[in-house]
Amino acid sequence: MSFGFSVGDFVAVLQMANTIRDRFIGAPEQFKAISNEVTGLSNVLRDIESVQSQQELTDWQKNALVPVLKECHTVLVALGKVVDENCYLKPLNSHSFRDKSRRIWKRVTWEPAEVQELRSRVVLNIGLLSAFNGSLISKVTLGTKDEVERLHTRQDMRERHEEHQTILDWLTPIDYAAQQQDFISRRQAGTGQWLLNSDEFQTWLNTDNQTLFCPGIPGAGKTILTAVAINDLTTRFQNDPGVSIAYLYCNFRRKDEQKAQDLLASLLKQLSEERSSLPDSVKSLYNKHKEKRTRPSLDEISRALQSVASAYSRVIIIVDALDECQASDGCRMTFLTEIFSLQTKTRANLFATSRFIPDITEKFNGSTIFEIRAHDKDVRQYLDSRISQSGQKLLETHREEIKTEITKAVDGMFLLAQLHFESVSTKKTLKKMKDVLKNLPTGPKAYDYAYEEAMKRIGAHDTDSEELAKQVLSWITCSKRPLSVSELQYALAVEVDKAELDEENLPQLEDMVSVCAGLVTIDEESSIIRLVHYTTQEYFERTQRQWFPDAQTNITIVCVSYLSFDEFKSGICENDEEFEQRLQLNKLYDYAAHNWGHHARQASTLCRDVIEFLQKQAQVEASSQALIAVKRWSGHRKYSQNVPKQMTSLHLAAYFGVDEAVQFLIGSDNPDPEDNYGQTPLLWATMNGHEAVVKLLLDKGAELETKDIEYSQTPLSWAAINGHEVVVKLLLDKGAELETKDNYGRTPLLWAARNEHEAVVKQLLDKGAELETKDNYGRTPLSRAAKDGYEAVVKLLLDNGAELETKDNYGRTPLLWAAQNGHEAVLKLLLATGEIDADVKGSDGRTPLWWAARHGDGAVKLLLATDRVNVDSVDRYNSTPLSIAARMGHRDVVTFLLSQSLSLTVKDNFGRTPLWWARRAGYPYIADLLLEKYKENGILIQEDDLPTTIISVPSDESSGYCDICVLGISEEDSYYHCRVCNNGDFDICEGCFTMNAYCLDQSHTLIKK
Ligand SMILES: [Zn+2]
Ligand SMILES: [Zn+2]
Fold it and tell me: Which Pfam families match (predicted)?
């Protein structure tokens, strides 16, 4: 459709809306909302149509309407696709002459996230069109500039809304709402009420700063009860904007996407979502990282989280299944520490569940503990409803007996009710049923018995069903991440040695679940197919050899067969649209490309299919595109082209560390093919830490010193960046160059120090790496480690005699960096050397004490205790530490400095005294302290010089701050930026700028932002 405005275009959009509206008729419940909204859209378009058929629109009006119509058109096209994907055509039925091609809605296979996004776009368009329609029918003069501007304002609102969503999705794409929906939908009405009614819950609910810890044995029903609690809380507080609720469902299957950072980012997203406008701290986090394509650090996220949380009168955080949060690499403990620290700072309420794990339980000492066990009443109610749903006469007649026996066996483990019922309900004679009821296993071993029992039932099926069940179970158990329903359907439909997928081969969803004897379930909202419980996964991990010994090999074969399809013969997609379409159409493409190699690495032998796949260059490139392309935010353009081209089979095998494939491929070939980014297989293998492959390649004489084109990094740089110790050793043993510098001017040692890889730092030092090497910013390994507060690395470098007084391009020593960033422990280590200049000044004239006063921490006392610092030292702008502490509102620091300071009333270059700042920043208690001291010393104050209004300073440090007065700059305020000073990170707030403040060099140009 070509859009200028024409009546034809308008009518076409209207018709399209009507068509889509009609196509939603008969759609399942999940599509109710979107279906209603499309009807709304069609109505408002019809209204406008009827007005505009009677009066010619003005040019203004037409211009305003065009973008809205365009957007409607795009949304409707997308909705049409959704309908197509979720319907199939029922074969013609000769008896039914009315519906020539009847569309039948499929049950589950739809992408809720996509639909939600479309919904919000439809709603916004309805809003815009209604506003427009309002202007048409009002008796006020038509087509004035005003109305059109109003419409534009609405459009701005829409754009802002979209931008906000982009930022929130950038924080984390993961959405726990779908899981909440799935869990709560499994609850039988009324069950779990006992938790809500309990004194423990009620007390927790009615008091702030409380923690309710609910441990329970496996299968007690913790997750469903968590869902019940969340449901209660969100309903209770839905109309209270002062209360914010955020929740997480930890899941061992998602440990890659549930690192401490991710979990906190998700809380940050949820708390931010509820604000009417996006919090500054979140926006600035995004702006800071977007261009450099970096991710925020744990520290940054947790500061932003505190700042956003403190804007609510009450924050409630719910975390289910802490035991499933990864314990290795300290993820779980880091997360808990952060959560508790958030609680201390914001008096948040915390609700958490877990299995009994001493490390976790210990952390909740002093909290209210409330054990979760399945209640008999709930179990009976659950069984009642299962029996009624079954429609089986035998079950109906023996309802009481079944309920009584199963409830007795359950003993607090709700999951057993579910498993036992499955086992009882398949019995066809009363005798067999009674036998089962009499011998229901109980106690801790009961799950294993129940799972074995289920496997026996599967074994008793016909061969096809048994085969299907084992495939489903092996895929779900061994997959590297949760599988969507359609991914698994496609995986099961793959025929080895075929060039394409035969859709007639797709198994029915109902069958996939029913053949698995109650061990598998579908989360409809999330479209995920999974095992019924964590214990089921544990069972299969223990018994995998018995039930599906060749699972890894089989999955590998399916993945590579899929990736070898003719569909991918055209190689890399040339643009994002084409790439996304490929992903959309080929449901297993994403999973197979990301994971074939992981499965191949775990398979017992290298299979022929892998080699065959690797010999198809076009398919290899297509699969590397899906492997490497990452869409980082919703508007991220050309991301699909941001991937290395000409990746060879050797690259791919090295990337995944499939050493047998590497061995096969390497043969007599060149071990160093380069992709168009100049990357060799060795570079990929070192980056990902695949020792065996690194060794193979090195033995074949792979080049040690290749540098990639983009960053000039060598294999050793990459191993150091990612902290792969063994690989570092292999490379060093081969004599890899230690001092090679990349485009950032960083050597491997600098990288290891920067990324806190202590062991690698040690290895490199032992090999004699240069300790005083400097990057492009003039920073040494010690200065990098001090800047980020890496205590252990700092210590190691100090033990090796690192230079203490080295200065970077802005005159900052390691001590200054530690002080500037508030790393007290590192500051202490550095001071303990005894030889350090504790009063050193950077280019901005600021001393460690000056910075310590800004952070308000114990560092102030540590520094003053050295007797080597000037308490009244001023910076380039004549600000004293006292003045900084006053403007930051640090009462203790002000008190302490007042006891030692001699220059109580010194003015900065802009005439601002400590008292001026205390008044200006709104800290009356600090002002009182100062006034008292003035009085003692007989100092008179000129009230006229003092500000009468308070500035509002964002309390949060993660948004930018003014490099002159060091107070935060709020997003709404304009500020001035120097592109040179502090490596291009120098900002001046409006307040300082109007007082003629300038950056470090008067000749620089400041840019207003
Ligand atoms: Zn300022
Ligand atoms: Zn400058």
Answer: Ank_2, Ank_4, NPHP3_N, WHD_GPIID
